[in-house]
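Repro:
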Amino acid sequence: MKNNNKIQFIFFLFLTISLNAQKAVPVFKDGEAQIVEAFNDSKSWIRHDLWVETSFDTDGDGKLDRVHVDVTRPNQTETEGLKLPVVYESSPYYAGVASGGKELFWNVKHEFGEKVPEPTRSDVERRGKRPIISNSQIKTWVPRGYIVVHSSSPGTGLSDGSPTVGGDNESLAPKAVIEWLNGKAKGYASRTGNEEVKAFWSTGKVGMTGTSYNGTIPLAAATTGVEGLEAIIPIAPNTSYYHYYRSNGLVRSPGGYLGEDIDVLYDFIHSGKEENRARNNKVVRDSELVNGMDRATGDYNDFWAGRDYLNEMQPMKAALLMSHGFNDWNVMPEHSYRIYKKASEMGLPTQIFYHQNGHGGPPPISMMNRWFTRYLHGVENGVENDAKAWIVRENDKREAPTSYENYPNPAAKPVTFYLNAGAPGAGTLSTEKPTSNTKETLVDNYSFSSEALAQADYTNHRLLYVTPVLEEDVHISGLSTITIKAASSKPAVNLSVYLVSLPWNKGRRAKITDNIITRGWADLQNYKSLTKSKPLTPGKFYEMTFTLQPDDQIIKKGQQIGLMIFSSDNNYTLLPKPGTELTVDLENTSITIPVVGGVASFKF
């Protein structure tokens, strides 16, 4: 009898081991999570939604706001007790956005400081059905052994609250969701009920990603220092609403959205409860936003400082992999660079991926996989020892970036160029400072596009200064800086500065990198301070220094690098009546360009 019991025990022991051996678990190879067939059957995935209680009440109903959350997880998290880390994306866009045309944007054809009527306000017609908020990220990460979670940001979709476009609640909402995934916040089966939902399937380790606004929210969450947020991969994130809607004191629109401002974006995303919208509009849009954004001066103020995540980074602990396009003229490349630079200085694990195209564009899946594998699954794959900067070269595919020690390229050295007269044609750029005190004048006229001005042989609507023809390729890496001494014929003037590659490629198959190298905009009234502008004395010269957008580009031999200075930019700035004269003192104006190899790399 004793022998029989012993045999039975051994049998059941082997049976238990055998059954356990058959349980699905994440699989890793070469430091990356692999697709597991047991997780790859979408029909078996468990999908459900819930509401997570936050720490704020932004719709003023006397109750803590709840945010709508959905979950997609392998069925093994239910049937086999499997716990997995979470890839989380949050957005204000999931439930739809406002429809309309130019009437939704501010009128930009007016003089500086002139009061104009507000744009037409539009309501969002909410869309989407429970329990699925979004399908993004799911097919990529669930088969690789992750749970995917989405949430609608405050005041959008089925989430309570109000949009604030960069306000504190947009940081605290994802923080609450991450705390729920760690068992520190409460989730409920309904929007108003008391039946709790537990994240028993979560390991507590969370990674966030997303593009544009959806890429801003991971950074917003990370700046709270919330426990459990181990890694973020923001793609083309807006890291400062001032830098999105202003530039060096100038009212400047994001590319493609002339006349947009922070209140317009609020209307665009406000898809939350219809019965709460009037109150939210009054308290948030028509008070906090409209009173704080200051379209009259474009100055940096406390309102904008409170919506600049660079100012909030001290508590941040999450590992950071940034992604951006050097030719993103919507959310411009400075947004990622400034955060990457600060995170590096703080000693956080950081990498940056730049490509040569426009808005959006994630890193290669292998890079993202290694990042999440290391910081969410805890697999020691050495990603923290990989190159810090990855840049897609001009003729390469996005999946094949070139690695560099850092960005900007450590081999880049500042090369200063000075201006020699040539208006209304083209003057020259030289590394030797001119000795004659020459001044040249342009006449503002927004009717001419920047592209037309760069291609014109002669025009009095821009000033253009070019290098000799390059005999070898020139590699630019970093931020170019212009110091300009100029006078305006009026108390205010737009100042637009481009670096261009000439001759201009007019071909139908011209690449995005062929013509525009980088750009910058500024308000000469802010020559002393970003926070306090001062009307210009007509005819008086003022000196101002500012940086252009970061870039990493190889200018091919046979081209010329051109510095173009003009006034109103009809794709980005306010458009006052043509005729303002802008005069530049060439002797006291220069452009410093970061060149790999320094001045020795310039061969003319």
